[in-house]
């Protein structure tokens, strides 16, 4: 199997002007799971395709993903990413904006190296995906100011923000390998469910994770009143007294007591079981779709990835 | 001839989330010369092509150009553009960043509507152009902090920042019309020279323009010590006393006196004639290239554009 990390390392960012390219090199060298390019390569192998042909798209997706993190960190004023200073802290906001723009262009440059006859479809899908992710990010911002966000709206937001990138990676790899439309569609849906399970798991770990394995402080979402699957489920299922208690805590500043009190309310409302049920449901739907995939080593690896993501502790 | 303004008005930005799309609609509705899409359509007609086929690329170039203005305005902290509040002032920085990102993606969506068999080349060129513009912007930033910028470096910076977009618009239109490589190359070079003439004219008008027709205050570049063609030429040709006087004024804050004194130094060094000579030289080189273009009404219009740009007062 192709080593995606080696392929990323081979990308050359030594050209001038370094003010533009050094932050791109820095961002891509910071690691991460490389989940998206892995999915593109695996889905290509699943249908007997040549991984080398899927590599440009795989790399384009990873560069695109890192571009979104770079600009998100500016917008969220985040100072640390993967244990290192973010670009706008290490350099400045303008550098983060311009190098981020160039990174988005670099993603399209990598995409342009895909097989020419497949390029029109791959480009159209890539554009749809990129649009979805920007729309998801905008909804996330809009939700902060709204008090009436429904769980359905939340699911749609995380579908756009997280799932469509995974789904498009899978669909693109399968398309390059010559899989038919039905198979592409199943892989796409598989990616959607895996992404949703992944994101709800994220919300769950932020409250019920183990600080040691989770790698960051528990309760961050509660502190800043983030509208997560848990908080929205809590409001949807609270009785009048619980709702009033919850609203009382949301009006108060971040504190250890706030985290404890909201968690106690979550326990009483049964929010943890609801989130676990949702994760299980999406994992099961993903698993059911796998039956239709060719039975080979790539399927084994996709199944392994699904299990790992659904049971992850960090 | 296709009405480019009508085509831009037909782009639909009414979809949700409006937090993402309203700033894009606002930016594109603010007018501008629409020079880049005009060039793409004209060069297509020059070689007898169907304008409709060049329209997606023409629109992509205009949307891309407006994306660069949107992000540049954030980075420059500019509060007014084309007589209206900039997006980051009317909304906020995060909106300008995210809607700008989406605008870049929208440019690629428009490009993807170009004829499929021509898409691989058009995409590669578009990526090259976009890269050049980001590199040019970075050099512009780098130059601010440097005291040893040469005129050659400055010309290369404005070639990247201004010329390659015009040149790529022309080349793309010609390619879609089926022009051969030699013809594409000549149109590309024509665009490079026109862009350089345009940009040096910009520097000239900022000092020697008429405030009434120029539409903004004269001397803005002098006030902020901007490294323009005029300032770099002044340093390259000043004698020791003139250089010392120039350096003395650069060390002082913006004022009416500073503008007057630096202009007097420019006059003494002969900088105005140098800039006018450079504009004339690039206009002549562009004009010479026109001899090889087909003799038709589109060529007349390109010639008319060249004359207008080289003699513009605003």
Question: What key phrases describe this protein's structure?
Answer:
Farnesyl Diphosphate Synthase, 16 helices, 2 domains, 314 residues, homodimer, two-stranded antiparallel sheet, mainly alpha
- How many strands appear in the DSSP assignment of chain A? 2
Domain tally of chain A: 2
Structural class of chain A: mainly alpha
| The CATH H-level homologous superfamily of the largest domain in chain A | Farnesyl Diphosphate Synthase
Poorly predicted parts of chain A? none
* CATH class assignment of the largest domain in chain A: Mainly Alpha
Largest beta sheet: strand ordering of chain A: 1-2
Number of helices of chain A: 16
Overall geometric form of chain A: globular
Largest interface: A-B, 35 and 35 residues
Order of helices and strands of chain A: HHHHEEHHHHHHHHHHHH
Rg measurement of chain A, Å: 20 Å
CATH architectural name of the largest domain in chain A: Orthogonal Bundle
Instruction: State the separation between the terminal residues of chain A, measured CA to CA.
Output: 26 Å
Sheet having the most strands of chain A: 2 strands, antiparallel
Strand content of chain A: under 5%
Helix fraction of chain A by DSSP (H/I, runs of at least 4): over 70%
């Amino acid at each position: 199997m192709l080593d995606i990390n080696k392929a990323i390392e081979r990308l050359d960012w030594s050209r001038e002007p370094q003010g533009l390219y050094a932050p791109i090199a820095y961002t891509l060298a910071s690691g991460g799971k490389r989940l998206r390019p892995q999915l593109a390569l695996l889905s290509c192998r699943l249908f007997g395709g040549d991984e080398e042909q899927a590599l440009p798209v795989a790399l384009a997706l990873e560069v695109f993903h890192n571009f979104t993190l770079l600009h998100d960190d500016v917008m969220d004023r985040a100072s640390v990413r993967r244990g290192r200073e973010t670009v706008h802290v290490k350099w400045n906001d303008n550098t983060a904006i311009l190098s981020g723009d160039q990174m988005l262009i670099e993603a399209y440059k990598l995409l342009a190296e895909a097989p020419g006859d497949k390029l029109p479809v791959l480009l159209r899908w890539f554009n749809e995906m990129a649009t979805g992710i920007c729309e998801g990010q905008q909804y996330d911002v809009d939700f902060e100011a709204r008090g009436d966000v429904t769980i359905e709206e939340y699911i749609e937001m995380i579908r756009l923000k997280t799932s469509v990138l995974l789904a498009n990676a899978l669909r693109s790899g399968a398309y390059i390998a010559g899989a038919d439309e039905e198979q592409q569609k199943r892989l796409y849906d598989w990616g959607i469910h895996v992404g949703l399970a992944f994101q709800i798991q994220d919300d769950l770990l932020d409250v019920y994770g183990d600080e040691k394995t989770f790698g960051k402080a528990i309760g961050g979402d509660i502190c800043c009143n983030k509208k997560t699957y848990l908080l929205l489920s809590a409001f949807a299922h609270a009785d009048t007294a619980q709702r009033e208690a919850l609203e009382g805590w949301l009006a108060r500043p971040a504190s250890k007591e706030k985290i404890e009190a909201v968690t106690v309310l979550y326990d009483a409302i049964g929010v943890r079981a609801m989130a676990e049920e949702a994760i299980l449901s999406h994992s099961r739907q993903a698993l059911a779709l796998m039956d239709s995939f060719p039975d080979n080593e790539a399927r084994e690896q996709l199944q392994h990835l699904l299990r790992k993501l659904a049971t992850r502790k960090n």
